[in-house]
Amino acid sequence: MIVLPESFERGALTEAVFYILLSLYSPMHGYGIMQNVQDLSNNRVNLGAGTLYGAINTLLEKNWIHSIPGEKDSRKKEYQITESGKSALVDEIKRLEELIANGKRITGGEAK
Amino acid sequence: MIHVVWKAFWDYEKEEKWLNEMSAKGMALTGYSWCRYVFEETEHNQYAYRIELLENMPNHLESVAYIKFLEESGVECVATYTRWIYLRKKTSEGSFEIYTDIDSRIKHYKRIYATWNSLMFVEFTGGLANLIIGIVNLSIGENLGNFSYGNIAIGLSVISLGLIFYRLGLPIRRKIKKLEQEKTIRE
Hints:
The structure holds 2 protein chains of 2 kinds. By secondary structure, chain A is mostly helical. Chain A contains 4 helices and 3 strands. Chain A has helices spanning about 15-25, 30-40, 50-60, 85-105, and strands at about 30, 65-70, 80. A 3-stranded antiparallel β-sheet of chain A has the order 1-3-2. In chain A, helix 1 (about 15-25) packs across helix 2. The longest helix of chain A has 25 residues, at about 85-105. Chain B contains 4 helices and 6 strands; from the N terminus they run E-H-E-E-E-H-E-E-H-H. Chain B has helices at about 10-25, 60-70, 100-140, 150-185; strands at about 1-5, 25-35, 35-40, 45-55, 75-80, 85-90. Chain B has a 3-stranded antiparallel β-sheet with strand order 1-3-2. Chain B has a 3-stranded antiparallel β-sheet with strand order 4-6-5. Chain B is elongated and about 70 Å long. The interface of A and B includes residues 30, 50 and 51 of A.
């Protein structure tokens, strides 16, 4: 019997998704996410509004984030990470740690 | 002061580049309808422009929600034309890109490519049908009536219209191919 891999969710998260999930440990609206990602990455990652919008909708569908009624400005929707979103992020961090450890070990830690 | 410029583009990214060049000269787009651009004089380089093809018409609920989201992030929709939207953002508010990863860029290009392709298909089918009716009627000695040349003429012009859509899709197809190649090695 052929055993299929458990799911596609074992793959790498995109950089955008990784930073969006990280941002949403505190509730934020779309524009807040864009600014936060920019800050976190020292201006390296600029999320386009279209890319962000697509990612938010996919993450909502997967139930990795959920929307909450905005507090300050009720017209703007705010989002927050869910438990399954957190566990996806934790898995990704483990995967990245493995990559970094192997990378440093074999290249002799040139990236120190 | 309002300026109207008539101009046609094969490639929406060249159009986008031109709009940004105009903005750099202090001509900010405020309206568009078929090949007709309306500009307003502003300070030089006040706005950055982007053009996007939506999945639905701009008044569709999904599009309305998306445009609202854009507006919340400082992006203004200055014109809509069929499913195309013309967007701008103040240059003082940082760089302006709609799609910043390979996946979403491919998705957008594919949407554009599919649009030109389906229009091309419609034109080719209609044109070919007219052409065949004309030729068949001519070959049976115009038994069905005296319309062969009319049909052939209509057929040929509709087919050339189809070729225009083929021409529009060409640069997009190249860009999709290039991005998909890039995607095999990076995100």
